[in-house]
Each structure stands twice: as C-alpha cells, then as structure tokens.
Amino acid sequence: MELLDVIVSLIQPNIIMYMIIGVIIGMIIGSLPGLSVTMSIAILTPVTFWLSPEQGLAMLIGIYNSGVWAGGISAILINTPGTPASIMSSLDGYKMTKKGEAGLAIGINTIYSVLGGIISSLVLIFIAFPVANFALKFGPPEYFALAIFGLSMMISVSEKSKVKGIMIGVFGFLISTIGLDPIVAFPRFTFGSVNLLQGIPFIAVMIGLFGVGEVLYQIYDSKNSSGEGLQVKVGRIIPTLKEFKRFAPFTICASLLSVVIGAIPGTGGDIASVICWNQAKKLSKHGEEYGEGSAEGLAVTCASNNGVIGGAMTTMLTLGIPGDAATAVLIGSLMMYGLQPGPMLFVQHVDFVYSLMGMMLVANILILIFGLLTAKASVKFLKLKQETIWVGVLILSIIGSYAINNSLMDVTIMLSAGVLGFLLRKMDYPIAPFILAVILGPMAESNLRRTIAMTNGAYDIFFTRPIALILILLTIIALFGGVIKEYFIINKLSSNNKECNIK
Amino acid sequence: MGMYISMTYTFKKRSVGVNNKRLINGDILLTGGIMVISLIAMIIAFDFPGSTKDGAPGAGYFPIMTSIIVFILSCWIVIRGLKEKKSYFDFSLDMRKSWIQIGVTITTTILFIVLWNKVHFIILCSIYLFTLGILYGKKILPMFISSILTSLIIFYIFSELLNVMLNG
Q1: A1 min Cα distance to partner chain B (Å)
Q2: CA nearest to A70, candidates A111, A114, A22, A29
Q3: DSSP sequence for A46-65
Q4: Residue B55 region, left (φ>0) first, then alpha (ψ -120 to 50), else beta?
Q5: What is residue B4's predicted lDDT score, i.e. its pLDDT?
Q6: Spatial contact of A284 and A250, defined as CB atoms under 8 Å apart
Q7: Kind and range of the H or E element at A91?
Q8: pTM to 2 decimals?
Q9: How far does the CA of residue A171 sit from the closest CA of chain B (Å)?
Q10: Fewer CB within 10 Å, N- or C-terminus of chain B?
Q11: From B28, which residue of chain A is nearest by alpha-carbon distance?
C-alpha cells in the first residue's frame, strides 16, 4: 500500500516532465552508436544539480532505462549496437530487418525491454535483500568462473569456427592486459605511453568493431552498386497473441535470471543477454531459428537487457556496490544529492528509496508509450540512403570515441578496432567474444589471481566451491557440448550399424 | 587511374596465381599477425614480475597464460589454413570501387585525426563529411551544404551542450 502511495505521489507534472526529458535523451543517446548510457548519465549529472533530488533522479533513471532499451534500435536497424547490452539484439534483430520485419523487431525490442524492466523493478521492490545476500556469496573463484562462463556462452554462438571463437576471445583477454596491472599497478605493454596506462578503452574498441568495422564491411559488400537506399519492409509492430504466448515463458525466465546476473557486481546486460539467449536457444522448440532472425530470440535478449537494471540497482542501493558502470556513476549522482547508498539508506531515507523504486516502474511505462509511438519513425532510419548512414556512423563513431575522455588516442584505437573488425568479419571470426573478453578481462584476471593467492598457488578451489564448479561445468558444456553430442551420436549410429550387420 | 588499374591487375595475378592457386591466404594473413603479436607479448611478459614465494601470481601470470593459448590456437588455425588455402578477399577488377572506397575512408579518417588539433573542428568536419559524401557518390552541391550544416549542428550539440572539447 505504501508503494502505491509513492507511485501516486510520483504522478506530479514536474517529476513526470523531467522523467520524460530523461527518456527522450536516453532514447537519442542509446540509439546512437558510440554514445553510452554511462557517459550520458555522467555528463548530465551536473545538469541535474539545480533540481530537487526527486526531479534529478527521475531524469537520470529515465536516461538509464531508456538508454539500455534504445541501444537495441541501432542494433536492429543498422547492426550497430548502441550499448554493450544490445550486442545480442543485433544477431536476430538485424536479420529480422533484412527479412522485412523491422517494425516487429522494434516493437519486440520496446515491449520486451519494458517487460524485463518492470519485472526487474518488481524484484527490486520485493526481494532486494535476498538477492543481494545471494550475490554476497560470490568470492573471487565465482567471479572468475562467471567471467569465463559469460565468454564461453559468446563463443558457443560462433557457429562457423569455435577454434577461431576461442582464439579471438583469449586474444581479447590478452589485449585487456594492456595498462596498469589490476593488483600491483605494474605497467604492462604501455611502451612508455601515458595514454595506455588506463588500459584499452573498451567503449572505443566497441565503437570501432561494430561501427567503423560494419561500415567498411558494407562498403566491401556493396561492390559496384548504384547506392540505392535500403528497401526494407516495415511490417507490423505488435506481436500476435500466439507469439506473446510462445515468448512468455522464455522472456519471463530471462528477466528473472537477468535480475540475478545484474545483482552481481561487475556484470551487466551484455553477459545477461548472452547467457539468457543461449539457454533459451537450447530449451526452445525453435532453437534452430535463433541467430537467423528469430523473434523469440530477440524478445529474450531484450527482456534480459533491461532485466539487469533492477538487479544492478539492488546491489547499488542495498550494499553501495555498483552492479554495472552506469550504476557506478549513479552512486556519484546520489552522493551529489547527499545520499549515501548502502544499508543505512533504507533506514534513513526509506521514502526516497520507495520513490526511486516507483520511478523505475513509471520510467518503463513511459518507454512503452514512447517506444511504440516512435516505432515507425525510428524505422525511417532505413529510408536514408546507405551512403548517408555510412557517413553518419563514421562521424558519430569518431566524435563518440573522442567524447569518452576527450582523447585522440581513443579515436586512433577506435579506427584500428574498426579495421580489425572488418578483417575479422571477412575471415569468419566472431567479433562478440573479442569485445566481451576485452570488457571482462580485468575482472577475470584480478579474480583468478586473488583466488590463486588465497590458496597459495592451488587450483582445486574451483572444484570445491559449488557455485564456481557449476559455472565451470556449464562453461565446458557450452564450449564442448556440441563435440560431445556428436561423439555420442556417431557411437550410437555405429553400434546400430553393427546390430544391423549381425542381424 | 591507369596506375590504379595496373595495380589491381597485379592484385588479381597475385591472388589467383598462374596455376589458379590463391596465394593470398586469408587465415595466414590475420591469424599469422595475431600469432606474431602473441609471441612478442609472451616474450615481453616474461620480464614482468613473477609469482611470489607463497604462490601469489605476479603481473606476468595472466598475459603469459593468455599469449600461450593464443599462440597455440593461432598455430592450429594457420596450419589448417595452409591445408585449406582459403581466400576471404576478392581482389578482382569488379571490386576496385569498393577497395578504393575502403582505402580512402581509412585514409581520410587518419587525416581527420592528425589534423584535429591543427584545423578548427567545423572546417575539418565539413571537409571530412564532404569528401566521404563525394566518395560514396553523392551530388556535390547538396553534399557541400549538408556537410557544413551537419558540422555546425554536431559542434553545437557536443561542444556547447555536452561540454566535449571539440575545438581545434
């Protein structure tokens, strides 16, 4: 009842107005490749300083939720994820666009992102403390196993060559070691450059691989075409009742699983969407359609993208530990308002906590309205000529990568990553494991080293702690499951043949 | 242009060869490069601080481990590539327009980065957008106007509203 009162109290014109502004800004920034949600929250936090905490936070919550959702729009329409969380949306979403189902893909992105957002907000409201307690059980071995598991999920998606997937994933880990060592701050592979001390900026790498790399690939693929605009059918936006029923179990489970993943600090929408998509692919009756423009696959990734927000907010609010980069910046924003995230926040500012939880629900409702109203307009991106999109993506990739640190080094890294992305794509290398490994590398390394330091050089801890063991077993299944399955099928076939011969 | 055509002919001859064998092997081109990088990284990483007496791994532990795995796997891919002799790139004359566009796109972007602090952003961005537009076959006058307008809008949004330091 108390929560309902809070939601009613939120329906004030000034708070709703700032939340709408936040949703619109998040929509624009999230859909533009290279402009991250984290960057926008960081840049706009000082702008909200002159507002009341409720108004300012309404705007930032709007940006956060909307930005994650809107990242899927560019992933679906131009195969360039707006945010890391929407990497998986490009797999099925872009293929749906190519099949003339751009409208449905955008509609699914909106509806299921909102579903994920609402479910995760409800979890935040009702079971914040138990989820945070579970995440507290994770120590260094579990974090390392989780990072490896996340990467293996991404590699298992690379159908053409798993060896290439594993190689490029581990190469991503190697690239992530550039900069200061995370434990003793020893400079590695910096070659005396101050710019490299902070490591390789993964956002610049991501922009390069998915932005510039995609443009170069499209130029190569266009051959001597006349440069006509993409002729894509928009089609319907809302899924049918039958589709809703079919997607329901997977999307609800994905949302709930994402909340748990989001509650684990350091993880985010990227890991959640990979894990959920992969598990849904294995469990679904239509698993073979996943990655080939499956509406169900897209719905699962969209639900998991926004599903992590509630989990990330849970650990941020209850423990003061950021669930992801965006919540890390939000901690700074809360502190700017004089609020210290942590258990005491629930004692000293309980009304504010409820307001924040209510804001999460209201922001998702606004996204649903805006998303569906602007679905046709966003598909108009495709009416633009291919060449115009190329020029737009190139200049935004340059500015976006520069804006992270106001550094030309980031732009240089972005361009290099773009050329690498083009070469990788042309040579059947999966790009996603590389970028995920660059992102997860520091987490994997520091936790592996902490684990080994804890055990004085022994590795058996990974097999004695149940959560770590389960994650390692799942990693092995993800990487070698196909090979094991093939082995058993061949054995079964050969034994059947022998039986036939005997008869 | 004549020089360029003769270059593409050389490309074609090199890639297809006399006995119809493709000499530019895709798997060796990139994976060979990664193999060399991993080897260099491994050599450098051996100089990083090693493990302590109580078994705590040092700064070199993770780079050495990952570079060894990358080296082994890239060797595997290169050997397999040598057997399969698969070419991923088409250097035939049909592809000349695409290769020119890719080359000029990368070159102009490099020039954009090099000249960033020497020329004002609005001028530099206008020239960059105009060059790319013409390269991709856009009409001169509309592209000229739209490049200037887009540069002004970008400058205003990023520099004035978002406080990104774009000014050269």
Answers
A1: 41
A2: A29
A3: GGGGGS-HHHHHHHHHHHHH
A4: left
A5: 38
A6: yes
A7: helix A89-98
A8: 0.70
A9: 6
A10: N
A11: A427
